[in-house]
Amino acid sequence: MNRRGFLKRASLAGAAALAPPGAAAEAQSPSPRAPAPTTPIMSPAAETSTPPEVEILTTDRTGSDFMVDVLKSIGLDYICANPGSSFRGIHESVINYGGNQQPELLTCCHEESSVAMGHGYAKVAGKPIGVFAHGTVGLQHAAMAIYNAWCDRVPVYIMLGNQLDATLRRPGAEWAHSVQDAAAMVRDFTKWDDAPMSLPHFAESAVRAYKIAMTPPMAPVVLVLNAELQEQPLGADARVAIPKLAIPAPPEGDSRAVAELARMLVAAEHPVIVADRLARTPAGMAHLVELAEALQAGVVSQSGRMNFPTRHPLNLSQARAIADADVILALEVNDLWGVLNTFRDQLHRSSRPIAKAGTKVVSITSGDLYMKANYQDFQRFAEVDLAIAADGEATLPSLIDAVRRATTGDRKRVFESRGAKLAEASRAALDRARLEASYAWDASPVSTARLCAELWGQIRNEDWALVNGTGGWAPRLWNFDKPYQWIGASGGAGVGYGAPAAVGAALAHKPHGRLAVNIQADGDLMYAPGVLWTAAHHRIPLLSVMHNNRAYHQELMHVQKMCNRHSRGIERGRIGSELVDPPIDYAKVAQGLGLHAEGPITDPNEVGPAIARAMASVKRGEPALVDVVCQPR
Amino acid sequence: MRRAIFAAAIAVVAAGAVQAQPPSSGQPAAAPAGDADRGKTLFTRNGCYQCHNYEGQGGAAGPRIAPNPLPFRGFAAYVRAPRGDMPPYTVKVMAEQDLADVYAYLRTRARPRDVSTNPLLSR
Hints:
The complex is a heterodimer.
Chain A lengths: L2 H9 L1 H4 L6 H6 L15 H5 L14 H12 L3 E4 L6 H10 L6 E4 L3 H15 L4 E5 L2 H15 L5 E6 L10 H4 L15 E3 L4 H15 L7 E6 H5 L23 H13 L3 E5 L6 H14 L2 E4 L25 E5 L4 H5 E4 L5 E4 L6 E6 L20 E4 L2 H15 L2 H30 L9 H12 L4 E5 L5 H4 L20 H12 L5 E7 H4 L5 H7 L4 E7 L4 H13 L20 H7 L3 E6 L5 H13 L3 E7 L4
Helix pairs in contact in A: 5-6, 5-10, 7-8, 7-19, 12-15, 13-15, 17-24
Chain B lengths: L6 H8 L21 H10 L3 H4 L19 H9 L15 H12 L16
């Protein structure tokens, strides 16, 4: 009997499975005049009589077992999932057939958390993890997190359960959970998707999806796993090939364009390098340091990735470098227009250029290789003098070589003189930051500068990595000098990213024994706090310190702006944005989810000791949270 | 979908506009008498704290404006008609005396101790 026939019979089990011959046929074609079956379902006769045929109710191997073989072959270490019946087949195959190892199933409490965990994990580990979700309700929950990963150019490997064959669906929920084209909802912000119709088709598409996700510009991909394909018996002698996976080498910039860029940089008097989502691997930061030092050029590192050491003498991130530049090199900068211009958000919106007239602008970005239309995360069009469509990190080695070839002795002396001035500017910026941080030092609520300084005081001698949030001050006060110490932000500014991405990143840091630190915004945590339970359940060590300003503060400022603009009700600007009355007790929330937690702390002198106690829990391999009531920004 | 964070842009635009002067600067000229306690209430109630924080120390969304704000005339002019991103506070919603009270509050904010004596901030 094939599976289709089996399921048809199974659907009748309540009425006919143990009925005498002919009863099943009657049940399949009910007649209003036919008498109701008189044989009790569990009658002795039904249990002792010969069944109409030998029904095969079990199988040793299924299609989803093979799917797990494929997932192992491409190297997925984890799968995040909130359980769902549309992927029950592969769920069982992962935990039993696959031994729940590589991939290991992580129990999540919300699909948004599942995807955001994958988002954070990939930025540390350099490769995606999997997500299982219903093709309907699960994907609907997951959609915002997928959009964040899309905007942030991060691969997440999403697998959706679906029952495509309408005649096989269980009545009720399975219909509500089925969809013709599951991936359609997220197709505008995923890079590729497929709904395989056979296991060989699955194998090819699974490998193809991984390749596509991992090729810059990276992005989430979606595979729809038909329930029928997952649960169908697979003969013991079935042989389905798994294609070989070869990750494409990322595209380097055209050699002539790179040589031209090198000449421009060497000839410039005030070259400035701006880097955003540049460093995909640990090599990215090393290459950028090498380029900057070869030119003695200032670097403005935006917050997209850990691009450049914060205390490097050429780091101009806290200085106003753009206005003085004569050549600007933008490396994987998402909003280059925003780098080159200011925007004034008043009643009449306006903008003006920052860069001086005649400044040459060059971009290197894989964003020029791939783009979609509907969602507008690509930002305003920026005029450039030279556009190199390529991966920034992959292009740096050839650019460094070209710069060295183009540099003469005279230019080297100019570079050295420039570097000394920039080092002084960098030192002055750090001194300024320390002075500014000292204001309101003893204030309550705790200033964000004090929060970051206290946290830095506790972690500075550890092998730490900041996985979410900056408190506004961490890049100014902390010494980030390792490529894994920062992973950027959400990408799409979809709130709710922080906590789950931090847990995912901490998971990736765990085998390295690093202290993962999360500066957790209060409004963000309220989206899906259940991820803290996931961290506790799976023993994922993570130190979360709350930047608790008791509001969706960004929105609060926007509403205040409207109140002022209309000159009415400026005292009511907080309505709808504050998280007060009652204030949320995040320590109790976290304790209830299985974490060591303290707070709310309002005395700045209590912050450091509380963090120290929380760190003791984290060092035991557990997550911990300290709730600090902070000033707004 | 929640909005993007514009704090950095706000800070860049606003910085230098109503920024506090160095601690060594002199007393602001022609500062009207103000009630610092009332000013504290207004500073919070009218939303000034949202960008400048409760002590006027500034941060990611707005510059520091205490304890030594610009001279009152420039301070008031900026609050009424900001050149940057700051929301305008018209007379209709914030009277002259309100400004004077907020100004008095800002001037009474504590000055920081020497950074070099702060182990969490010293080099």
